[in-house]
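wait is this the right file?? whatever heres the structure
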């Protein structure tokens, strides 16, 4: 690609007589003869407008050889003694003839940002809000973990059993005839067998009837192929466009380099493929009613007691073929801190329960969360 290079000259304003738009080639104000000094008003140059799309300056390029020579002289420096502006290639101040010293301030050459170009989206830096949220999440999780560890730590206390309680329940079940439905291919005819003392039963399958074809489900089956087209977008070269980049020479001149680059445009196109079409095909099977047996609740009784009452079971009189389902629950109410309400502690067996009495002093190991881990007699 061919590069086109040109020099653009800036202008400055005199802070002594307020003359505007002095060409950069003049180191002194043509009105008051004041040298350009290192001030906000005089050290900044105006280069006019720039085309936002291409980055190209709207000013004419410099063709005067003397001005071009000044542009190539390097960044201006300011005399440490009188403050006057001098060409970068002059070793002495043109105003006071002082040699350029190490403490003489100077402008600098720098690349200027060019026009914006479309670039692939990149992951930018994480915003402060995201960092705050992540930090909060970390502290929350870390705090929860520390809290969870603290809640499981245990301590030993001297306590007392302030109450005992028990509850027992018996459910009476009877093997009773019922009618159910099922798929014919899953049913096997078998006679029922009644239980003896609540065991040994067989539900059986008998008297199949009312068999009908019913939908059991569905399956996907191929239904031929068809052409499917989707509109997509792709990048396509569509000519060229001028883009310019600029370098500030630090002396009131800028070097502008322009070149033609390939321009890409969005192009829509149809992406077509052959795809297999599927449909739901129903699956049918024979469904029948049949006679069988299952356990059903016919009675339930509960008993309960506390503080020294001996646990007992409810009094039920089942038939020989019935069965009984038993439930039992045992709890102790324990206190170990004055002013704190008692905590219930569950036991598994009657034998464990009978080992403790109301008013009995105990040593109790408790978590910070209030869970009793171990109980010992004192």
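ok assuming it is, sequence goes like this
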């Amino acid at each position: 690609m061919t590069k086109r290079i040109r020099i653009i000259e800036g202008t400055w304003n005199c802070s002594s007589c307020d003359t505007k738009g002095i060409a950069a080639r003049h180191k002194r104000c043509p009105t008051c003869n004041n040298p350009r000094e290192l001030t906000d008003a005089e050290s900044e140059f105006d280069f006019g407008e720039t085309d936002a799309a291409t980055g190209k300056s709207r000013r004419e390029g410099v063709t005067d050889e003397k001005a071009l020579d000044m542009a190539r002289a390097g960044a201006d420096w300011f005399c440490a003694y009188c403050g006057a502006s001098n060409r970068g290639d002059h070793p002495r101040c043109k105003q006071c003839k002082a040699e350029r010293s190490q403490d003489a301030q100077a402008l600098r050459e720098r690349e200027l940002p060019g026009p914006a170009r479309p670039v692939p989206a990149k992951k930018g830096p994480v915003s402060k809000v995201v960092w705050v949220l992540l930090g909060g999440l970390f502290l929350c999780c870390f705090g929860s973990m520390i809290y969870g560890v603290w809640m499981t730590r245990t301590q030993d206390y001297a306590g007392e059993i302030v109450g005992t309680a028990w509850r027992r329940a018996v459910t009476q079940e009877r093997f009773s005839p019922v009618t159910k439905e099922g798929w014919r291919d899953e049913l096997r005819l078998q006679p029922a067998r009644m239980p003896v003392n609540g065991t040994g039963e067989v539900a059986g399958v008998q008297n199949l009837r009312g068999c009908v074809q019913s939908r059991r489900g569905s399956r996907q089956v191929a239904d031929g192929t068809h052409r499917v087209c989707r509109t997509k977008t792709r990048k396509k070269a569509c000519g060229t466009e001028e883009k310019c980049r600029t370098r500030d020479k630090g002396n009131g001149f800028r070097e502008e380099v322009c070149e033609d680059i390939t321009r890409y445009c969005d192009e829509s196109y149809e992406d077509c493929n052959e795809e297999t079409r599927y449909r739901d095909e129903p699956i049918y099977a024979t469904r029948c009613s049949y006679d069988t047996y299952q356990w059903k609740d016919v009675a339930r009784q509960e008993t309960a007691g506390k503080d020294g009452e001996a646990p007992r079971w409810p009094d039920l009189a089942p038939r020989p073929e019935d069965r009984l389902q038993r439930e039992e629950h045992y709890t102790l109410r324990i206190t170990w801190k004055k002013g704190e309400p008692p905590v219930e502690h569950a036991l598994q067996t009657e034998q464990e329960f009978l080992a403790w009495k109301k008013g009995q002093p105990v040593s109790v190991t408790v978590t910070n969360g209030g869970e009793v881990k171990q109980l010992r007699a004192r």
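The chain is about 10% helix and 45% strand. so i think its the right one actually
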